[in-house]
Amino acid sequence: MSPTTLLIIVLGLLSLTDFFRGQRYETLHRQLYAVALFFFCFIVSIKYYYGSDIVTYYPHYIATDTPLKLIRENINNTRFEFGYELYCSILNYIGLSFWWMTFLITVLYFYTINKLFKRLNGYKIFALLLIVFFEYNLFFFEYRQSLSVSFFILSFLALEDKKYFRYVLFTILTILCHKSGIIISGLALFAFLVKFRAYSKKYYILLFFLLVIMVFVPIKEAVISLMEIVPLNSTMEASIKMHLDLTKQIQAILIIYLILFFILSFFDIKDVFNNNWHRLMIVFFFIIVFFYQDYFLLNRIRSYFIPIAIVYVINILESKITRKQYSNVLILIFAVYIVIFYSGFKLHTEDKKAQSGVNEFTTVFALTKASEGEIRNEKMKKAKKFWENEYKKTKK
User: Fold this and answer.
1) At a CB cut-off of 8 Å and minimum separation 6, what does 41 contact?
2) HSE-up of 39 (CA within 13 Å, CB side)?
3) What's the rounded Cα separation, in Å, for the pair 197 and 195?
4) What are the two backbone dihedrals, phi and then psi, of residue 47, each rounded to the nearest 5 degrees?
5) CA 312, CA 198: separation in Å to the nearest integer?
6) SS3 content of the chain, % helix, strand, coil (to 5)
7) Strand pairing partners for 47?
8) Looking at the chain, which terminus has fewer C-beta neighbours within 10 angstroms, N or C?
9) Whole-model pTM above 0.90?
10) For 320, left (φ over 0), alpha (ψ -120 to 50), or beta?
């Protein structure tokens, strides 16, 4: 069983207790959330040479320059973003293994998620389940972007707390750890500084109908035409084209987006959050609509906003729901559970079909039966087999 499927089953069952309402359940909710958060973090943190990207990340990690050499000689000649390079350089220099590098990224990510979820009014285990559904690629495989996402969320929380030095510091770290952080930080700054109307029910009506239209728009051809006009370097152009090859018009998540926009169009939510939250979220929702078909490209952007959006939507529904809208919210929740459990089943099936075995989950506890070198060599072989065979088939 894949770890993502396991997390969906366990957190899915535990999240049902979130819907037991009343003061007498508050202690139970706190205790079960602590258990769920620990279990979630534990499963992710014990991964050991997991996934196909280790063919790139492991050789890079062991070959990093010392911190001083990196800063003095290679600051403008790094393979990855400077922040990630420096992070790996420091850990490698003090003798920490590749697993420790991934473990510390995991701890930072879940520290950040827990810090953000302290602002949730309830349904915290359900919120963790949503993180699993939307972000399993991020916390299992995407080390650089996990760092960048963590710093972005911390920057947003610092701004909310009016700690402006921390906001600037975390924004710089966001940009340094992944190139997508530049775009995201720019979008966030736009949302915070440009004084457009922070909230209107009409936004969500517009989003609903635009999403329906975007399902049928040939967005891939439009982006390729735009790329012919905008000057891009060869690396960025190749990356965008790779993402555009993975487009889908009909996705299971579509029904959730449509129901959500429909429900939010009924609520007057100005008083639930301040303008920073409203503006950031409306920018995010429009990004979802315009890049809906290009799900792989959208995932890169969505990871930064999803945890914040989860807090935003849950707190709105929790504080504004009335008996009249209760049935609509139940439909949304039911649809979410159906899509999440379907995705868990689909992942499990796909992992069983994979010939390379690249997604066979190996944990750090495997060291009790084999050496690090033996485990690493076996996992590297499977990762190379994936890139040489299975990945090429998806590109045909």
Assistant:
1) 106, 107, 110
2) 20
3) 6
4) -60, 145
5) 14
6) 75, 0, 25
7) 363
8) C
9) no
10) alpha
Overall residue count recorded for the chain in this entry:
396
| Cβ-count burial 278-292 (b if 16+ within 10 Å, e if not) | bbbbbbbbebbbebb
Q: Which residue has the tokens 């963790």?
A: 128
Beta pairing partners, 363 = 47
